[in-house]
Amino acid sequence: MNPIELLKQEHVVILRMGQDIERRLRSFREQDQVDPAYIDTAVDFIRTYADFCHHGKEEGILFRALEKKELEPPLVRLMKELVQEHDWARATTKRLAEANRAYAEGDTDQLAIGLRLLRQIQSFYPGHITKEESRFFNPCLEYFSEEELETMLVEFAAFDRKVIHEKYRRLVETLSDEQLDPA
Ligand SMILES: [Fe+2]
Ligand SMILES: [Fe+2]
Fold first, then answer.
1. Where are the alpha helices (DSSP H) in the chain?
2. Could you say which ligand is closest to the alpha carbon of residue 82?
3. What was the pLDDT predicted at 181?
4. Which ligand does the CA of 59 lie closest to?
5. How many domains are there within the chain?
6. Cα separations (Å) of 176 from 40, 43, 97, 170, 180?
7. Ligand 2 centroid, distance to 6 Cα (angstroms)
8. 34 Cα to the center of ligand 2, angstroms
9. What's the pTM value of the predicted model, to 2 decimals?
């Protein structure tokens, strides 16, 4: 196992979630309504797993290690593009969460907006993942020794151990920032 193989295993999980989102989107369109609880689940998956856990390791460990190498310019450009795509996914997920919250509170105008955003996110991942797997990961591997790859795998494991703690620390912070309705 090397760090790239681990990232590819995570891609499989992200793609499976994408297939589920695609199925749900079809039924939401047919029924002309969405299930806000499902959207919350999808947002949580994207934020915690796809973004924090997966993009987090790519950007925070792999890309950072690559920045210390003398990379070929096309690979530098590709890495920047991937970071921009992660930023886009993060921002779009935030907009989806906002639209879903407004829809759950009765703003039906948000239905079409939420569906469009969910569709955009769902169709983003296959292309992003193909780009990483077909053009980025293999050239990356050539810059690292076996020992460096093993160290990176240890860093990945340490990062993964943080995920659940960070997720619930953020949750508690969000909850304590929310105003309680006066009784
Ligand atoms: Fe990525
Ligand atoms: Fe990835």
1. 3-31, 36-44, 56-57, 64-67, 73-104, 110-131, 137-141, 146-177
2. 1
3. 66
4. 1
5. 1
6. 19, 20, 19, 10, 9
7. 10
8. 28
9. 0.92
